[in-house]
Amino acid sequence: MESTDRSTQAKAFDESRTGVKGLADSGITEIPAMFRAHPATLTCLKPPSPPQHLMVPTIDLKGGSVFSKNQQDSKTRQRVVEKIGDAAEKWGFFQVINHGIPVDVLERMIEGTRGFHEQDQEAKTRFYSRDFTRDLYYASNFDLYTSQAASWRDTLGCYMAPNPPRLEDLPVVCGEIMMEYSKQMKNLGEVLFELLSEALGLNPHHLKDMDCAKSQVMFGQYYPPCPQPDLTLGLSKHTDFSFITILLQGKIGGLQVLHDQYWIDVPPVPGALVINIGDLLQLISNDKFISAEHRVIANGSSEPRTSVVCFFSTFMKANARVYGPIKELLSNENPAKYRDFTLTEFSNIFR
SUPFAM superfamilies annotated for this entry (predicted)? Predict the structure, then answer.
């Protein structure tokens, strides 16, 4: 009976097309039952405090000097490669500073995302869809009908590469900054894939030549204030279906990564971007790099939490490209742990 109630609630919520923000704006003081997380999940929302030394690594990209030709900068680059490799192996997560993207671009991207979610409902509703292969969509909870409990979050999703959208097809309130931000993400992504390639002992262009940097999907996430944040999540624990993910956090925290059996906070750092290894890179690196579980706790503040996520991935789009563990990384001592697969096959499993 409970599952029937859950599916009925989900259907009614879906058909309202108003998202979680619509619930928050209605002035509710209790969250609907479909958002209440499993008791075991709620128990671990207040886990033991991790040791103080456990902090997600922060890596200084030196404003692009890692790509300079002079000898001094080549040593700097090597140190950066070592730090990125270490973080990718041990954490699957790290923050980058001095990445070359202007702060005003980051701020305008956050403002544009918030602007989209806070505009009149009619302006958003025309983008509403549960077809996640659409080039652009607005929805709440892509796993709304399959998860144990819904998360307190709405999403604007857009496939930005390899086929960029037309500006006129994007929301007026944030279209221009989405286009500009996506270009900045492409440039930074290519830099990161070079550094990650070297950290694997490969030539700098190896991952890029495998098209790891080719596809990009952007999510503008909006987490309204939650009246009962101890009973739900902003985003339940998961790993990412991507090669890498680049996250721009707003000023309100909530992101946590699972490390050494502790949930570690990833606090917002002004001007920084959070990078995490996705399932696809763990797989092709044959587990050299790890795709760590992470989550977002529900927003208990009085202000909305806004973030922007860029997946280097085709996500739900069909893609017949075949991937498997990189042959150059394999040996008798390190045999392949995974079989080859198409991205469509992997997407279907993820879905």
Answer: Clavaminate synthase-like (SSF51197)
As a whole number, mean pLDDT of residues 5-33 equals: 95
- In this structure, what DSSP letter does residue 128 have? B
**Nearest-CA neighbor of 105 among 159, 177, 172?**
177
Residue 281 pLDDT > 70? yes
- Per the prediction, the chain carries an average pLDDT of 94
Q: Are 209 and 97 in contact (CB under 8 A)?
A: no
- Report the chain's terminal Cα–Cα distance, integer Å: 25
pLDDT at residue 3 tops 60: no
- What the block records as the tokens of 325 is 């563990």
- Domains of the chain: residue spans and CATH: 2-350 (2.60.120.330)
**Which residues fall within 8 angstroms of residue 277, CB to CB, at 6 or more apart?**
88, 92, 93, 244, 289, 290, 291, 292
What is the residue-wise DSSP string for 276-338?
A: EE-HHHHHHTTTSS----EEEE---SSS-EEEEEEESS-TTS----EE-S-GGG--SSS--SS
C-alpha triplet 44, 45, 49: angle, nearest 5°: 80
> E strand or H helix at 194, and its extent?
helix 175-199
